[in-house]
């Protein structure tokens, strides 16, 4: 069941399990379950560790602990229980809730007698709550003795057995207990009792209690010391001799183990207490998790030795066999013991792999393997804590190791550790400690030696009398002090090196970049090869279990490394200078006839063509070759140890090399959270996943069948394999998502779960003839897994014999009458098809329906609204070209599609019906998407698929966030206006704008609406909608203030004479500029029962947005004098007639100047336009047409016009210009119509008829 095998004690329990298995699997099995009273006895020589082991069993399993010796000590602290209960207060009576002794037992102890077994049994029974069993069994024994006596008397008298005596098959009397024996309330552990077979038999006969198992501590190892030696080493036997006690106890223990039917389990006495407790748990707890035996465990595959099998030519369709994968545990391929104890990621070895709980754990070495086998539960953690990262970068000289370490440290903010320098300092420190310890031991040994040798005194160090020193002897101060010896052999010295490495890279070492340059011993020619091997980096890291998480080995060409290391020009220059200097010295010596000086060290004086730089380069290449050999040996050891390693070429420079290193280090640094999870993933094919899910071997993850990598992604059918992790399976939707999940699973496992509501596609595809509707609908249905539905298919489904109903009869009657099926019947047929199980389960794609507004309204009335309505739009020329292609290809079954006249009629019908359909869906639901049908079919499908995915994602996000009581966008939900009217207290005003900017912004864009707690909030922009969605409560703290109201025309007329606030001055101009501007009555706003006037509409709108800012405007103390209406008109007239200070009236020359200043620019613009257009109105001459054009231009541009009159004049001017262009347009259209090569369309026919009607209208007006 559920992929596991269960064993049963009999056929009846097996049948009960098969009827209802979950009833028995609600909890994990345990030996301390309610109602289970297992009994154990723990025996140990001299009670060694018995108390602590029993207490640990109590702490883990909750067993009752029964220690007879402790019970006896407690009983001795109370007065004894008398044989007869005295009157109250006469004799002290012990507490019955505590252990007590009877008076006779107390007197025997006072007399120095041994405690009887009966006393121990009574104390144990009282502790376990089964004291009544002693009385019941005693009464049964007495009744049995009486029955035997009566039976013997009857047999002696030759009479029949007395009445009331029941005999068994052998003729012996049988006496039943007065009532069933009582059992302990829960499991128990007896400490140190019974120690002998007699005590065990007495416990069984007198108390009816038989332990299930006896745990006996004894020496088990062949080379282990004796029991007495172990106990004495642990400090026992100091107060009393152990030998007699041990002899007695061990003899009793041997007799106890010989009891037939008693299960005795031996526990090693010589091991530690923790190991003893693990052994005890393995003996008593069958459900205690242990490492599976190699013979019982599943075989561990070896991916490294796997070779792909040869393909079978007879079966080419067979799936290729994939490389086997090891099902790693929670630690992946790393050692769990090293991870737990030393906080270091050390790769496990192939030779130390174990199966535990059906997964594989690899251990680092033999010691770790033994520790894991003893107690695996101590090292297996559900979610192991990862230690900080340690990355090793190494390479030969010139490869740029130091620079790359520095760059990595700067990027990841991790310190760089010079590993060789740190290790050498730790080695020196440990050597000093060894030498000091050796020196102290030698000093102590010298002090303990005899003071005489050969009857001569031996003086301690420092006491020796001074010796006579010859005069020619060297001064001791000039002699070098002898080097102190450490006294270590090679093995001890290697161990010291390993410990120094542990000191360098201990658990205290945090995240670091390790500079693995390790070539200090190459130049030491005196060091042996064995010692070099012991001091090698790979040997120290492996034996210290300090392999890095990832190793980068830089490689480079010799020339590149040499150029990066040396300046050859400088070397040659220095060499020439030194050689010239030496030659000068030789010449000077020869001139003086002296011996020439010796050449300086390293200076080649032979006349050769070889440069000094060439010799330096040759030595460098030789040294680099030795370093590369060392690196090669290191890589072999690392690969054998399963340590991750990567070689990177550094020939391209620091930048590209650093980029490559970062790419390789990403799984260990940036994606470190997935370092262990990544190895636990396993790809599972769809067929295998379905099989395992059906059998219960695995469960679907919390993401269901949705992708964990993309939030709110629709679940389309795909062939991408699933991924198994920890008994759960995940379903990425594409190869890209699969690669992302396999690379960094921890990044996606924390994503919120999918929507609780399943969302399926609901798509309608409409368009003109031959626009590709059917092809697109079928491709969408196939890709999304939806059901393809067309009107003929829906009607034929209903008309089939399998669906007899009134609707099918009506449709059949309509078809038999030779008429069109009415729209109501078609809509009902579509509804019937959409409610079928396959459409409800998988969604639907509707082909070429609805085609009219009436059909769309009928579907909407039934609650059927497509998520997207795709309108395929193609020019007429493209449609006719496709029809011509079909006709030329003579495709069978496409005869109707080839008729050009039919396509023209269908296109005209679509052109007439589609605008209303578009307006209906776009206005109410905003779900119309136009697709250019003239593009390739792949581009059309990609565009449709993108919109379909987006529509499903919007709905999935809405349902997911709504279920979590989060704010969510309503964009794409196709809500009606009535549904969106459930507005909040903020009505149509944006709460984000009100909170951030203190502005009132009224919004009606439904794409910016957000639903929160079943209320709709309207946002001013996309950015504000996202802000509100992330944290809605942050923007709902500012309540909506009282709203201002802009007065309409009727209210303005009624309140035109009413006095406004601020003495009719514009508050916006006053606040923003500080100027006083009298406002007109055309822009009135009522706010808080007060009127405000404004200079223009823009100012009024500003006030509507920020009323709190402008309502508190204050007028200055000094205001201009009030002027009446008559005075204003008179002053205006006076300003027109009077100019300047001299009071001179308006002169004719001034009038010319005024016209030039005010009208010249406008008239010039009109004349320029007339000159450019050359207007010629039908029926009029050029001059008259030019004057009409100028007059209409001036009327339209008059600055004194009102807005309404200016718009009217602009329309008249446009009509005049269209009339002027009428003859040329008609001529051009006529030429196209008469041309035999031009494909005249219905759209052009309508346009031509419109131009002719306009031409007739113009000439009728002229006549």
Quick rundown:
By secondary structure, the protein is α/β, with parallel strands linked by helices. It is 46% helix and 10% strand. The strands form ten sheets. The protein has a five-stranded parallel β-sheet with strand order 2-5-1-6-7, with helices on both faces.
Q: What is the topology?
A:
Layout: H1 11-19, E1 39-43, H2 50-61, E2 64-66, H3 68-76, H4 103-110, H5 117-128, H6 132-157, E3 166-167, E4 173-174, E5 188-191, H7 197-207, E6 213-218, H8 227-233, H9 243-257, E7 264-268, H10 273-284, H11 336-342, E8 353-356, E9 359-362, H12 366-374, E10 390-394, H13 401-412, E11 416-418, H14 419-448, E12 452-453, E13 456-457, H15 490-504, E14 512-515, H16 529-534, H17 537-543, E15 550-555, H18 558-565, H19 568-591, H20 612-640, E16 645-649, H21 654-665, H22 677-680, E17 682-684, H23 686-695, E18 699-700, E19 722-725, E20 728-730, H24 735-743, H25 746-749, E21 762-767, H26 773-784, E22 787-790, H27 791-799, H28 806-816, H29 823-834, H30 837-842, E23 844-847, H31 853-861, E24 868-873, H32 876-889, H33 900-924, E25 928-932, H34 937-963, E26 968-969, H35 977-980, H36 991-997, E27 1009-1012, E28 1015-1018, H37 1022-1030, E29 1045-1046, H38 1049-1054, H39 1067-1073, E30 1080-1087, E31 1090-1094, H40 1097-1105, H41 1107-1110, H42 1125-1137, E32 1138-1139, E33 1144-1145, H43 1148-1173, H44 1182-1196, H45 1203-1220, H46 1222-1234, H47 1242-1262
Parallel strand pairs: 1-5, 1-6, 2-5, 6-7, 10-14, 10-15, 11-14, 15-16, 18-20, 21-23, 21-24, 22-23, 24-25
Antiparallel strand pairs: 3-4, 8-9, 12-13, 17-19, 19-20, 26-27, 27-28, 29-30, 30-31, 32-33
Helix pairs in contact: 5-7, 13-21, 14-15, 17-20, 27-29, 28-29, 29-31, 31-33, 32-33, 43-44, 44-45, 46-47
